[in-house]
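USER:
Before I trust my own judgement here, I would like a peer's view. Write it directly below this note and I will take it from there.

ASSISTANT:
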Amino acid sequence: MIETMKIRRIQPQDRPGLKTLLQAQPHFHPEEIRVALELIDIALAHPAEEDYIILCAEEGEGEIRGYICYGKAPLTEAVYDVYWIVVHPECWGQGTGSSLLRRAEVTVMDRIEGPPKKADSFHRRICPEPETMYFRAVRSSTPMGPNE
């Protein structure tokens, strides 16, 4: 993991860097980039809402190296969906995505009350510590980068 990385909430000035980050992904199609940017715009327009929460991984002088987009599932008390975890290809395999997911999980735990619910078998495969699982995976047909 990059030592100088900082994880923080999205800010309006992050949009150009996030667009560049999305365009750097060799496996994203233009339509996927468009959808990701729509969610970024919604999160920026409505920062107090829980539909789309975005945390950015920032390095050095504000260079965006990755982000996670997650949000509260409708009609639930304590279920959050992860919509996107995007890491710059130069940072793949360095722990940026894992750090973003861990920070999102801590943020969710701070928002809800009570112990987490028991994870099902699918969630146990993607989360080695299911007692901390507050997210459910949103499956995609897009292949991930190496080591993802």
Q: What stands out?
A: The chain has a mean pLDDT of 81.
